[in-house]
Design a protein that fits this description.
Distance between the termini: 38 Å
Radius of gyration: 29 Å
CATH topology of one domain: Rossmann fold
Strand order of the largest sheet: 3-10-11-21-16-15-14-12-13
CATH architecture of one domain: 3-Layer(aba) Sandwich
Number of helices: 19
Low-confidence stretches: none
Number of strands: 28
Mean pLDDT: 93
Shape: globular
CATH superfamily of one domain: Anticodon-binding domain
Helix content: 25-40%
C-alpha cells in the first residue's frame, strides 16, 4: 500500500477529490466529498467535545482575513517564508530544503548560503528537467489582499493560522472567563499558505483545516490539576539529542527529568495522544519528536510534534508548544493595548515603586490646553520607558516627545492587590487534513477471499462517516419494510446509516467495508418469525443476532465504546 492507493480509494468513494479537476486542477487544493465531509466533521466534533466538555475550554470563530498590523505583530509579514529555488530552464519553483531532504539531516535549519552550498556540493538539479537551479531566495507564504476599494483600502492577508483570532480577542475572552487564569480557547477553521511546491496529497495544502487550542496560564505556575491522574501514562518520545533515539517515558518521568518542560505541556502531549488514537491513528505508528535546538522558535520554552508514520515517512500532524508570552507581548507592543492579568495575592501587599510625577507648573506654558492630557499620559507611563533626557507618550493618538525637565521620577509606597503578568500560552495545534489522511492510511487494509483482493478500511467508529449499513436480505417488500423502519429509527437517534438493497449480501458487506462502516444490520426471514436481526462487525466479520427493539441501544453502546462486540457475542 502507498499513498496513491489511498488517494485512489478516496477519490473513487467520495472522501477526497482534487479541486477544480474539470479545469485541470490546482496543486495544493482538494475538496471533501460526502464521505470525507462526514468523516472530517466527526473528527472535529470528537476534538471539540474533548476540549470543551472534557477540559472546560470555550470556543470562538474569528475572521479568516485580517489587517496587516495583526500579522506584523505576529511576525508573519516579516518571517513567514520558505526558501525558494527556481529552475533556470523550465522555470519550475521548488522549496530548496525539500531538494536536500535525503542529503542533509536537517535542511530546514540551513540559511541561504548554506543551502546554496549544499545544492552545489551534491549536484542537485531540477527534478523535472535536470536544469540548473537558481540561488535560493525568500518567498513569503501569505496570500495578500486589499480590504476595501481603491486607495482607501487597507492591506490585508488571509490568515495562515487561526491562533491570531484568539490572541487579538484576549481581553474580551479574559472578561468572559471572569479574569482568572488558567483558561483555554479553541477554534476550528481554514488557514491559507501559498506553498511553493505542494506535495504528498493533502499533507501540504494551500488551503487547509486547523483545530487550534490556546491555553493561557500563569507564567509562575505551569502545574495542571489533572496531571496527577495521568502521571503514570506513557509517551513515545524523541528528545532533541544526538541520534534521534526514541524513548518511552511516563509523564511524571518526563517532567522530573526535564525532558518535557512542565506539567501542563506534558499533560497536553498525553491528551493529544489519547485523542489521536481515539479517532483512529495507530498507536504503534505515533510518536512525539522534540524540536531541535536550531529549529525551535527563540521564544518557545519547549515544542513537540506529534508524528505519524505514513507511506512517505514520519510526518507532523500536531504541534504542541509552550510559546511563553511571545504572542500577547507582541500584540501589546504593536497595538499599545494592555493584555496583562492581575494575579491577586491572598491579601494586599505594600510595595515601593518608581512613578513619573509631572511638573504641571512648568507644563502649562509649553503644552497649553493639552497640559492636563500630557500630564495624565506621563502618570500612566512606566519610568523604564524614559530614554536619556526624554520620554515619548501617546496623546490623543499621536506620539509626543516630553523633555525630562517637565517631570520627576519619585518613589512611592502603596498597597497592591496582586501582580500583573502577561500570560504564557500552551498551544496544541492540530492539522485536521493531516489527521484525517493519517486515519485513512492507517485504516487501509487489503484482504483476500475466493473472489480476489478487496479493501477494508478499519476506521475508528468515532471517525467512520457511515456508522451502520442496513440491509434487507433480499429486495422483497416484506423484508424492505422492517429494514426501512430500523434505518429510520437509527437515523432519528443520530446514527448515520446507509440503506442498501441491491446486489448480493456479500457485495453489500464489501461496499460497507471499503468505506469503513463498522457495523451492518441484516433483516432476513427469521426476523419475520422471531423479531431478531443480524449485526455484523466489520473487522472480525463475525455476526450475532439481537432483538430488533434492542438495535438502537446496542449500536449506540458499540459506537461510543461503552460496549464491545466480543462481550455482545458472549451473551
Amino acid at each position: 500500500m502507498n499513498s496513491a492507493d489511498v488517494l485512489s480509494l478516496c477519490k473513487r468513494r467520495g472522501f477526497i477529490w482534487p479541486a477544480y479537476e474539470i479545469y485541470g486542477g490546482i496543486a495544493g487544493l482538494y475538496d471533501y466529498g460526502p464521505l470525507g465531509t462526514a468523516m472530517k466533521n466527526n473528527i472535529i466534533e470528537a476534538w471539540r467535545r474533548a476540549y470543551t466538555l472534557g477540559e472546560g475550554f470555550v470556543e470562538i470563530d474569528s475572521d479568516t482575513i485580517g489587517p496587516e498590523a495583526v500579522f506584523k505583530a505576529s511576525g508573519h509579514v516579516d518571517q513567514f517564508a520558505d526558501k525558494l529555488v527556481t529552475c533556470t530552464q523550465c522555470k519550475t519553483p521548488f522549496r530548496a530544503d525539500h531538494l536536500l531532504k535525503d542529503k542533509h539531516p536537517n535542511p530546514g535549519a540551513l540559511n541561504f548560503e548554506e543551502l546554496d552550498a549544499e545544492i552545489a556540493k551534491h549536484g542537485v538539479a531540477c527534478p523535472d528537467c535536470e536544469g540548473e537551479l537558481s540561488r535560493s531566495e525568500e518567498f513569503n507564504l501569505m496570500f495578500k489582499t486589499t480590504i476595501g476599494p481603491g486607495s482607501a483600502g487597507r492591506v490585508g492577508y488571509l490568515r495562515p493560522e487561526t491562533a491570531q483570532g484568539i490572541f487579538v480577542n484576549f481581553n474580551s475572552l479574559l472578561r468572559y472567563m471572569r479574569e482568572r487564569l488558567p483558561f483555554g480557547v479553541i477554534q476550528v477553521g481554514r488557514g491559507y499558505r501559498n506553498e511553493i511546491s505542494p506535495r504528498q496529497g493533502v499533507i501540504r495544502l494551500r488551503e487547509f483545516n486547523m483545530m487550534e487550542a490556546e491555553l493561557f496560564v500563569d507564567p509562575n505556575d505551569k502545574t495542571w490539576p489533572r496531571f496527577r491522574d495521568v502521571r503514570h501514562e506513557t509517551l513515545r518520545l524523541v528528545p532533541n539529542e544526538p541520534g534521534d533515539k526514541e524513548v518511552v517515558m511516563s509523564l511524571e518521568e518526563a517532567v522530573e527529568q526535564r525532558v518535557v518542560a512542565n506539567e501542563t505541556l506534558a499533560y497536553f502531549l498525553w491528551f493529544t495522544q489519547r485523542f489521536l488514537i481515539m479517532v483512529g491513528v495507530d498507536a504503534e505508528r505515533l510518536r512525539f519528536r522534540q524540536h531541535l535546538k536550531n529549529e525551535m522558535a527563540h521564544y518557545a520554552a519547549d515544542c513537540w510534534d506529534a508524528e505519524a508514520l505514513l507511506s512517505f515517512g514520519w510526518t507532523e500532524i500536531v504541534g504542541v508548544a509552550d510559546r511563553g508570552c511571545w504572542d500577547l507581548s507582541r500584540h501589546i507592543e504593536f497595538s499599545k493595548v494592555d493584555m496583562s492579568v492581575l494575579m491577586r495575592y491572598d491579601s494586599p501587599v505594600e510595595v515601593e515603586r518608581e512613578v513619573i510625577k509631572p511638573k504641571f507648573n512648568l507644563m502649562g506654558p509649553e503644552f497649553k490646553a493639552k497640559a492636563k492630557l500630557v500630564g495624565n499620559a506621563l502618570e500612566e507611563s512606566d519610568p523604564k520607558e524614559i530614554k536619556g533626557d526624554h520620554i515619548v507618550v501617546l496623546v490623543e493618538g499621536s506620539p509626543l516627545k516630553v523633555d525630562r525637565k517637565y517631570f520627576d521620577v519619585v518613589k512611592v509606597k502603596e498597597k497592591v492587590p496582586g501582580e500583573r503578568v502577561v500570560p504564557h500560552v500552551i498551544e496544541p495545534s492540530h492539522g485536521l487534513d493531516r489527521i484525517m489522511y493519517t486515519c485513512l492510511e492507517h485504516a487501509y487494509t487489503e484482504k483476500q477471499d475466493k473472489e480476489g483482493n478487496y479493501i477494508v478500511m478499519r476506521l475508528s467508529p468515532i471517525s467512520a462517516p457511515i456508522k451502520v449499513g442496513v440491509f434487507p436480505l433480499m429486495g422483497k417488500e416484506e423484508l424492505i419494510t422492517p429494514a426501512g423502519e430500523i434505518d429510520w429509527t437509527l437515523r432519528m437517534n443520530g446514527v448515520l446509516t446507509s440503506f442498501d438493497d441491491s446486489g448480493s449480501i456479500g457485495r453489500r458487506y464489501a461496499r460497507m467495508d471499503e468505506i469503513g462502516t463498522p457495523f451492518c444490520i441484516t433483516v432476513d426471514y427469521q426476523t419475520l418469525e422471531d423479531g431478531t436481526v443480524t449485526i455484523r462487525e466489520r473487522d472480525s466479520t463475525e455476526q450475532v443476532r439481537v432483538r430488533k427493539d434492542e438495535v438502537v441501544a446496542i449500536l449506540t453502546s458499540l459506537l461510543c465504546g461503552s460496549a464491545d462486540f466480543v462481550s455482545l457475542k458472549a451473551k
